[in-house]
Design brief:
Largest sheet: none
Number of domains: 1
Distance between the termini: 68 Å
Strand content: under 5%
Helix content: over 70%
């Protein structure tokens, strides 16, 4: 006979971090994908307008270049904002950054070296 437990297991911030990071990563990739699809569709639309003679080929190329330029600027801004928010989330979850780990590694190596020298004395 199978019984179900209604006990809720609360996740600690450290345990929630991997799922939070995975969710943030998926959201970032979805946003980038949506931006690329939108750009592709806009480029097709502009090219169709040029083919129909509704706008000049030169103007169409200029519009497409402007769209690409704005998307690149937007992507850079989004990356900066994403990194900023990710750093804040990691700080709240008390997860060490790569630089924190590198700093601790340096200290451990220095202490190990001093310990080895003290053993030799």
């Amino acid at each position: 006979m199978k019984t179900e437990s209604n006990v809720k297991v609360e996740e600690t911030p450290e345990a929630a971090a991997p799922s939070l990071l995975a969710t943030l990563r998926k959201m970032a990739l979805a946003s980038i994908g949506a931006a690329v699809v939108a750009q592709d569709e806009l480029e097709k639309f502009i090219q169709k307008m040029a083919e129909k003679g509704e706008i000049a080929e030169k103007d169409a190329r200029k519009l497409i270049d402007e769209v690409i330029s704005r998307r690149k600027e937007g992507t850079k801004k989004a990356e900066v904002e994403f990194d900023k928010h990710l750093d804040q989330a990691l700080a709240r979850l008390n997860i060490p950054t790569k630089s924190d780990i590198e700093e601790l590694t340096s200290k451990i190596n220095a202490l190990s070296k001093k310990l080895e020298e003290a053993k030799k004395s």
